[in-house]
Amino acid sequence: MKKIILGIIIGSLLTLSVQYAWQYYQYRESKDVHYLFEIVKYDIENKLKEARFLNASVRPNSKATVNYVYDNLYDVDISYERNGKIKKITTQYGFSKGVWITPNSTIFEILDDKAETIYIKSKSGKGN
């Protein structure tokens, strides 16, 4: 009986160890993308005046042409609210040698001018 209980305990510990190692490996593989969401939020709220970040989706392996060297290039679709309008833009974020390459304020302003307006809030706050 003691051998069966010992076997169950050892098997459980081994299973938990393998599961933890697998999750740790998966996290290390995708940790850059996890940081990207925080970077995008910071960029929208600090590089576009009076903008509030709403949502972002990331597509790896972008085919866009950029004027810098990168290890990874991501297309990022960003939804945000600015001046009573909810807008959507797409821009590229690069990752090179452990450093993020992000669009500057001017690029965000240009993208904002060309942005797709998804929703316009009315002055009463009820929307259209």
- Number of DSSP helices? 2
Shape: elongated
User: Could you tell me the number of beta strands?
Assistant: 5
The residue ranges in which pLDDT falls below 50 over 5 or more consecutive positions are none
Radius of gyration computed on alpha carbons: 22 Å
Order of helices and strands: HEEEEHE
Distance between the termini: 71 Å
Strand content: 25-35%
Q: Report the sheet with the most strands, covering strand number, pairing sense and barrel closure.
A: 5 strands, antiparallel
Mean pLDDT across all amino acids: 90
Structural class, from helix and strand content? alpha+beta
Portion of residues in helices? 40-55%
Describe the structure.
The protein contains 2 helices and 5 strands. It is an alpha+beta fold. Strands 1, 2, 3, 4 and 5 form a 5-stranded antiparallel β-sheet that branches. Strand 3 and strand 4 (99-101) form a beta hairpin.
